[in-house]
């Protein structure tokens, strides 16, 4: 672990109720092993912190380069000819962590990294969909996204000071056979159960169980699907 990373630990330990490390225990490995923050403490890259849902610097060079690659691939997909399905398939296999061999995209499509998006079989994105995948987005089989659906894992601190330089994320999970209506927004940390339907224009801020219809801002239960 780099010494530069150790300066991040005291505030984290204090936030967990463990108090401040001191000169007698700060360099002792046993001290770190006694805290639930050990896994966090040993993360040495901004990418690792990002994927773990911790505060991280989005301006890190590795992350900037990864976003550029994703934007280039999205731009190639979005500029492809309608008949050039084979070319798009090559690009979607590279863009997504999994499922790129069967996904269908109606350009334009945009995402942050692509490598954090795990797709099941036969996922369909209609026009103008956006996925901000700073954390994992897991999508089941036969999930349909209406036009302009946005899926967010990215979030920011409420305090203005840290918000200037740091952000964090929460993963999103969408079960199989879900239909998400146009212009709906799926917020960070949300899980949507299988076979559920999200009404057009909804803002989903809480988990959705299996087999229900939800709609509204914020989305609320409308009825159950028999």
Automatic annotation (TrEMBL):
Any GO MF annotation of the entry: O-acetyltransferase activity
Pfam annotation, one family: Hexapep
Keywords for this protein: Acyltransferase, Repeat, Transferase
Residue ranges annotated for the Maltose/galactoside acetyltransferase domain, each copy included: 47-101
Keyword Transmembrane helix: no
Cellular component terms per the entry's GO annotation: cytosol
Record-linked Gene3D superfamilies: Hexapeptide repeat proteins
Sequence similarity: Belongs to the transferase hexapeptide repeat family.
Name recorded for this polypeptide: Maa (Maltose O-acetyltransferase)
């Amino acid at each position: 672990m780099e010494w530069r990373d150790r300066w991040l630990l005291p505030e984290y330990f204090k936030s967990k109720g463990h108090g401040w490390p001191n000169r007698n225990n700060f360099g002792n490995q046993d001290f770190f092993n006694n805290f639930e923050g050990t896994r966090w403490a040993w993360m040495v890259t901004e990418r690792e912190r990002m994927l773990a849902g911790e505060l991280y610097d989005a301006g890190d060079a590795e992350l900037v380069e990864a976003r550029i690659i994703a934007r280039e691939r999205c731009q190639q997909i979005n500029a492809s000819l309608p008949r050039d399905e084979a070319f798009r398939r090559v690009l979607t296999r590279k863009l997504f962590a999994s499922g790129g061999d069967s996904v269908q995209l109606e350009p334009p499509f945009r995402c942050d990294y692509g490598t954090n998006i795990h797709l099941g079989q036969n996922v369909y994105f209609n026009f103008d969909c956006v996925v901000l995948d700073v954390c994992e987005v897991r999508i089941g089989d036969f999930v349909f996204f209406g036009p302009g659906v946005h899926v967010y894992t990215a979030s920011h601190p409420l305090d203005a000071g840290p918000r200037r330089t740091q952000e964090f994320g929460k993963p999103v999970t969408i079960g199989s056979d879900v239909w998400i209506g146009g212009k709906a927004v799926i917020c960070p940390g949300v899980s949507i159960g299988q076979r559920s339907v999200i009404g057009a224009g909804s803002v989903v801020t809480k988990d959705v169980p299996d087999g229900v219809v939800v709609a509204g801002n914020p989305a609320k239960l409308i009825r159950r699907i028999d």
